[in-house]
Design goal:
The chain has about 300 residues and is α/β, with parallel strands linked by helices. It has 12 helices and 13 strands. It is about 45% helix and about 20% strand. Helix 2 runs parallel beside helix 10.
């Protein structure tokens, strides 16, 4: 009787062991970290910071390829057999467009610099900061600004401007919109806003933002006491009133979090695309004084950088 019980116990143990052995390969595959190939447009600090943020948050194995030496990217990737591609910067994304059979993530890309349609296998985090955040900052710094000028090229910035219009309407702000098809359109469009706007919002639009147009805008700003809000410290140092700047490391973290989500999706799904969630604020107090704008002390204390 006891012998039968022992044989039954031995059989059960053998069956459990067999099941475990059969499942081991599947468990090993599911536990394997994703292999991600990273392409960077250039070796510059913002791209390196984004890479560091991604590497620390994706829970994956990463390998960087030199974009200048990769040659035929499709052939190179077929040899490496990765699970995903991360393209940091516009040039890297342009090259990664050739990849059709793998998920492609992008980071540190301004949509206006990459107006072409993106395929369903391409997801990512843009360098755009949500328009609500810009409008919040404008309202804090210049509460009286109810008419805000915006010049943009619809080929590059139409989607962002649509979002901005909705966000502005919710705050009772009127966006005075003008469309530019070429850089030479910008100065006369700026002149036409004289007396019609309380502030100007400079978007990262490649048609609008060039050295000559920026200089013209800043001269207009001082002559007409119209503050300029922008997206880069560079223009604040030149004479804009304030800027919201992206945080490259956190954009990388966002991309890493997105990579985790994509690695769990097995079927063809809607791509994940979003904007930068963090920003730093820079204010030029000297410019504010010249424009006759007094910024509250609590707002200055919130700023990350004050000139």
């Amino acid at each position: 009787m006891y012998g039968c019980d022992n044989r039954g116990l031995v059989f059960k143990k053998a069956a459990v062991l067999l099941i475990i052995l059969l499942l081991l390969p599947l468990l090993a595959v599911s536990a394997r970290a994703s292999e991600v190939i990273v392409l960077k447009s250039a070796d510059i600090r913002p791209y390196d910071d984004a890479f560091d943020g991604f590497r620390g948050s994706c829970g994956c194995n990463v390998r960087e390829l030199d974009l200048g030496k990769v040659g035929d990217i499709s052939k190179r990737l077929s040899d490496l057999d990765p699970d995903m591609i991360l393209a940091i910067g516009t040039d890297a994304l342009s090259r990664a467009q050739a990849v059709r059979d793998l998920p492609v993530l992008y980071a540190m890309v301004i949509p206006s610099e990459f107006p072409g349609p993106l395929r369903r296998n391409i997801s990512g985090v843009s360098m755009y900061i949500p328009p609500e955040r810009y409008l919040e900052v404008m309202g804090d710094i210049v509460p009286s600004a109810r008419r805000v000028g915006v010049i943009y090229d619809p080929r590059y910035s139409e989607a962002f401007v649509r979002e901005a219009v909705r966000a502005a309407e919710e705050r009772g702000i009127q966006l005075v919109l003008r469309k530019a098809e070429r850089s030479s359109d910008v100065p006369p469009l700026i002149d036409a806003m004289r007396g019609k706007i309380d502030a100007f919002w400079m978007l990262p639009d490649i048609t609008v933002v060039n050295l000559e147009a920026v200089k013209y805008l800043l001269l207009f700003s001082f002559q007409n006491r119209v503050p300029v809000f922008t997206f880069s410290d560079k223009y604040v140092s030149m004479g804009a009133l304030a800027a919201l700047n992206i945080v490259p490391f956190d954009i990388g973290v966002q991309a890493g979090e997105m990579a985790k989500k994509l690695s769990k999706v097995q079927d063809d799904t809607t791509p994940l695309r979003t904007e930068a969630r963090k920003a730093t604020l820079t204010i030029n107090r000297t410019v504010a004084a010249k424009l006759g704008i007094r910024i509250r002390d609590d707002i200055l204390r919130k700023a990350d950088h004050v000139y």
